[in-house]
Design goal:
- With about 170 residues, this protein is an alpha+beta fold.
- The chain has a single domain, classed as Alpha-Beta Complex (Nucleoside Triphosphate Pyrophosphohydrolase), CATH 3.90.79.
- The chain is built from four helices and eight strands, in the order βββββαβββααα.
- Strands 1, 2, 3, 4, 5, 6, 7 and 8 form an eight-stranded mixed beta sheet that branches.
- Strand 6 and strand 7 form a beta hairpin.
- The longest helix has 14 residues.
């Protein structure tokens, strides 16, 4: 059995009127899992770094430009019976500007900006819901112990890579 990491999962959020909204995309009728609501997902190209895949896939699937990029301390996985492999999916969080317009790709037929509660109800898989919980906890400072142990990094230039301050090492 092969272990592989060939895909990414990218949760997109914006702040609008002081509230956090997540972008969900509905898969088109001709795609695998038609009608499923999801975040941006995509395949990592040969010799491409996962975070570069995120930037490319977000642009391809939504026409949005990532303002800040975070690594989420969660890796989702699934078993593929077609090639008898376990697939690991690194999870990322992308901040976009509030006023930017979404233009979905042919893979999707609809999009919605939704609250955490609505996103949780719309996601199909437990791993996606777990990622959302971790992300929301970080964004709302719900877990104050994490922020005490790992204060925010000094200001960085826009477009630089950011990491969520979770875990030691």
């Amino acid at each position: 059995m092969e272990l592989t990491a060939s895909m990414i999962e990218a949760h997109i959020y914006r702040k609008r009127k002081g509230k956090i909204e997540f972008l969900l995309l509905k898969r088109g009728k001709k795609e695998i899992y038609p009608g499923l609501w999801q975040m941006v997902t995509g395949k990592i190209k040969k010799d491409e770094k996962a975070f570069k895949t995120v930037l490319r896939e977000v642009k391809e699937e939504t026409d949005l430009t990532v303002k800040k990029l975070f690594v989420v301390p969660n890796v989702n996985s699934f078993y593929s019976f077609t090639n008898d492999s376990i697939n690991f999916i690194p999870v990322f969080l992308c901040l976009v500007n509030e006023g930017d317009k979404v233009k979905i790709s042919k893979e999707h037929c609809k999009y919605r900006w939704v609250s955490k509660e609505k996103a949780k109800r719309m996601f199909a898989w437990r791993g996606q819901k777990k990622s959302l919980k971790i992300i929301y906890s970080f964004l709302t400072n719900e877990n104050k112990e994490i922020h005490k142990a790992y204060p925010p990094a000094p200001s960085r230039r826009e477009g630089e890579f950011y990491s969520l301050p979770f875990g030691k090492g």
